[in-house]
Amino acid sequence: MLKKQMSNRSMVRTEHIFIYLLVVALLFSVALPLFGITDASGSPFLTNTHLSLQTSKADKPGERSATEGSGLSAKALAEANNLTFVMVELADMPIVVFQAQNRLKLISAPQLERAVQVQQTKIEATQQSLLPELSKPEIGAKVIYRVQKLYNGLALQLDAKNIEKLSHLPGVKAVHPLPLHYRANASSVPLIGAPTAWTSYGITGTNIKIGIIDGGIDYLHADFGGPATPQAYITNSTTLSTSTYFPTAKVVGGVDLAGDSYNGSNDPVPDPNPMECSGSSHGTHVAATAAGLGVNSDGTTYTGSYNNVPTTTMRIGPGVAPGAKLYAIRVFGCTGETNLDLQGLEWAVDPNHDGIPDDHLDVVNLSLGTNFVLPGDPLSVASDTAALAGMVVVAAAGNGEGNGGDLYYANGSPANAIRAISVAASVQGTSVTDGFRVN
Questions:
Q1: Residue 407 and residue 400: Cα distance in Å, rounded?
Q2: Which of 12, 87, 180, 350 might form a disulfide with 378, Cβ 3.0–4.6 angstroms?
């Protein structure tokens, strides 16, 4: 698919909601307090806040039902006959929770690394042992992806009537719905005072790594220092396994976990090139608001000082943290929704895939969500776990995702995560009025 330069006009006309709190993440330590970690039995570390709903009785005393958190009764599951997506949660603690718990025991760094490696081997062995069982006709599940660091589980697609049978597989703790998430976006960089952070405090995001979990980034755009030429867009494709233009000095890493044809209901086709699709600009817009360099009136990349930015004469103003490095983590196809965002968050906590989450990104942004999820939603739990690794998760809230307008009480996932920075949408900057009503 040919690439298309994102409309400069659209970037000026619409502005992102919430990465302004990146400034907060830059002002304060990235590490968050470690509290509420799992107990020795391996129970979820947020047992008071992410409660699974037990809606069907266990087969034996003390046995946990596989439908906990699914919101479906055993009778409804027995009568169901349609394909659905679920996350099977396994009993062993995910890597980040295990690492945080053992770090508090003040063991040495080499001991901790060995212990983490042993835990990962254990998790991998359990997941591998489940794969043959999942493919048997009585379950017939297709594995979409597996996660181990922020959440120990397998994302599956299967017939809903077979969900109950998952409870009898070894190591299964619970089965949760895996909802589709929608793109969400709107806000203003100058409104939240980002230029003050640049001029008064010298904070532009230097040495900060920001992951954009979205539809990819048009790294050829001038706002990211790209060539912004027609020839570059013609020769670069989202489906290429490699790109002569990627990574760049600004968009320094990333991955495409979705593929162009993925729409939330079919199979993803991953590749290493996180270029956003032609005709789509959501992920690029989000990245530009987070850390865009700015574009001059003549269409060239802004390379001047951020102490006195001529925003009134620029085609595109700088993002909140123009000095930060970007990572494009693509979880959307060219159209539709996604349930790959937890996999994207997992990538962000261990970009070099060595099993040790010490190279995690500093901040990840999810301008996406779904409404009215049940407690214990896997993406929300994983977002909370990411805090244990020292990663700041920023999530959209109040967008009425997928509904095309305002929707009351629609916080949704992952914005309902306890340790995520959940930021509400703003339709416009400021307005003068003689009164207003708040419902």
A1: 5
A2: 87
Other residues' Cβ atoms within 10 Å of the Cβ of residue 206: 12
Say if residue 110 is preceded by a cis peptide, omega within 30 of 0: no
Task: Choose between 225 and 70: higher pLDDT.
Answer: 225
Could you give the angle at the alpha carbon of 56 between the alpha carbons of 53 and 59, nearest 5°?
Answer: 125
**C-alpha–C-alpha distance, residues 413 and 383, integer Å:** 10
Comparing CA positions, the residue from 113, 166, 401, 66 lying closest to residue 264 is: 401
Taking only the tens place, the pLDDT of each residue in 290-319 is 999 999 999 999 999 999 898 888 999 999
Distances (CA, A) of 411 to 11, 71, 307, 417, 432: 25, 19, 36, 10, 27
Give 163-184 pLDDT, tens digit per residue: 988 888 989 999 999 988 887 6
Own/partner contacts of 242-248, CB < 8 Å, gap of 24 or more, are 242/272, 242/273, 243/273, 243/275, 245/219, 245/220, 246/219, 246/273, 246/274, 246/275, 247/219, 248/219, 248/224
Q: Are 351 and 255 a contacting pair, CB within 8 Å?
A: no
Q: Residue 100: left (phi > 0), alpha (psi -120 to 50), or beta?
A: alpha
Cα 180 to Cα 234, 282, 335, 336, 371: the distances in Å are 32, 17, 13, 9, 10
CB atoms within 10 A of CB 103: 16
> What is the spatial order of strands in the sheet that 142-147 belongs to?
142-147, 153-159, 83-90, 172-177
pLDDT for residue 430: 57
Residue 373 burial (10 A CB sphere; 0-12, 13-18, 19+): buried
Confirm if 366 and 213 have CB atoms less than 8 A apart.
yes
